[in-house]
Amino acid sequence: RSPQATTATPAASRRATPQAAAASRARGRQARAGHAAMTLRNVIVLAPSGLVLFAKEYGHAVAQPRLLGSLLTAMTEFATQTTAMRPSYIEMSRMAVTLVWDDVARVACALVHDRTDTALFGRLLASEILLAFVEEYGARSARDAR
Questions:
Q1: pLDDT in tens, 63-96
Q2: Under a CB-based contact definition with an 8 Å cutoff, are residues 109 and 99 in contact?
Q3: Which pTM does this prediction carry?
Q4: How far, in Å, are 123, 130, 133, 140 from residue 136 at the CA level?
Q5: How far apart are CA 17 and CA 24, in angstroms?
Q6: Who contacts 88 (Cβ-Cβ below 8 Å, separation ≥6)?
């Protein structure tokens, strides 16, 4: 093997042309196509009463997140009364719901995603979303109370 010489090129010659940028994006899409990404359907933040405090829909979202929030609250109350535990993951034929609670702030996050996605990854996302929500709106409500 012979050593290869490297030369510095001016910044202007290193700029990507529109065609090069498009080719780079296409290569990125092809690389990501082999890796399945988590498919979110809905993110819902709930009060203990079932009131939807925040809802965001993605892709193939579940319609009427308010009804879903009420259903999840009723299921949680029933499970708590009968088993003394709250559900954290509900799997259906094509989708799943991951539930995470913040007992101090008294809010919950329900993440509706594809069934093929893992419960652990759903819990991680829902926990981060709930933490960000509590940090943002918990600070606001504390300021408003003063």
A1: 888 899 999 999 999 999 999 999 999 999 989 9
A2: yes
A3: 0.69
A4: 20, 10, 5, 7
A5: 10
A6: 98, 99, 100, 119, 123
What type of residue sits at position 82? T
User: Can you say whether the dihedral through the CA atoms of 49, 52, 58, 61 is positive or negative?
Assistant: positive
CA dihedral 26, 28, 33, 35 (to 10 degrees): 180
pLDDT tens digits along 96-141: 999 999 999 999 999 999 998 889 999 999 999 999 999 998 866 5
Q: Which of 87, 92, 98, 91 is nearest to 128 (CA)?
A: 98
Q: Are 53 and 46 in contact (CB under 8 A)?
A: yes
Question: What are the structure tokens assigned to 85, written together?
Answer: 């535990």
Burial class (CB in 10 A: 0-12, 13-18, 19+), 42: buried
**HSE value, Cβ hemisphere, 13 Å, CA-based, for 10:** 2
Q: What are phi and psi of 66, to 5 degrees?
A: -65, -40
Report angle CA 77, 83, 84 to the nearest 5 degrees.
Answer: 70
